[in-house]
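Q: Could you fold this chain for me?
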Amino acid sequence: MKMKTAWIVAMTLAVASPGFVTRANAQSWSQFDHHWHDGKAELDGYHLVVSRYGQDRKATAVMVFVTEPFSEAKRVKVDDPTANPADTFDALKLNLVRDFQTGIYDYNTMLSVFVRSATMEPVKVSFSSSEWCGHVYSELIFQPKAIRGQYLSYFEGESGPVNLGRPTGGITEDELFIALRGLRHDFMAAGETKTLPYLPGSFYSRLTHKPLEWTQAVITRAKGTESVTVPAGTMESFRYDVKIADGRAGVFYIENEYPHRIVQWSLAPDVRGELTGSARLPYWMAHAEGDEKYLKDLGIAPRQ
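A: Sure. Below is the predicted structure, expressed as structure tokens.
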């Protein structure tokens, strides 16, 4: 992964257009830019429990947060951001990997969420799941008033196009892992409650075999902070409660200090996720024999 300094500076000073910042939010951009354009990614390891087939399964999760240049037209990472700057914007990407065993066979899933760094608006969500029965892949492209995409499944009757509206003020479950962190500004004020259009997550949709459709959720940010102890340590955190019209309820504890890591969360099918460790490094270069040592910083044991 390579990002040219000149392009980053140009992005910072650009006049507002999709994916660019304005002078009005220059202060928030300054903090964001200082942290997220240092040529490294944030890697967070988690102990996770996932409910599958009516039983709790021990799982490992990794969240990777990193900025990268993104194509407006193609909705993919750009190799050379200086080649077509009019089509290129700065994106923050989350890759959330979950691995867990179910009896004789395992699940390996990956969720990718891309948002515009300047506005935190989602632009693309992709999801893949592989287990011993077969593969599933989905992709959602976010447009101003619609979500278009495709669902490709090993299972009969599940493949096909995705065409959804995009209600004003709506939020997606997949987006929560970025939005609640408040990387540019607080998602909600302390003590505030909102009722929002809500799109359930790709992981939930996969495990329940339910097609995606909009519902509602009530999201509340608690007043004050709490000390939360996880394997990575004890951290002062603020709390979000999420209550969804489908009957699910979740809790997210977010580290009070910037960059507001996700300390702990629960939202079915995730029973409980706890931070085990973090690192900032250019992980795409750590692929040599011996680089498994970095997993220790994430609290994750290398595979034997």
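A (continued): The two ends are 28 Å apart (CA to CA).
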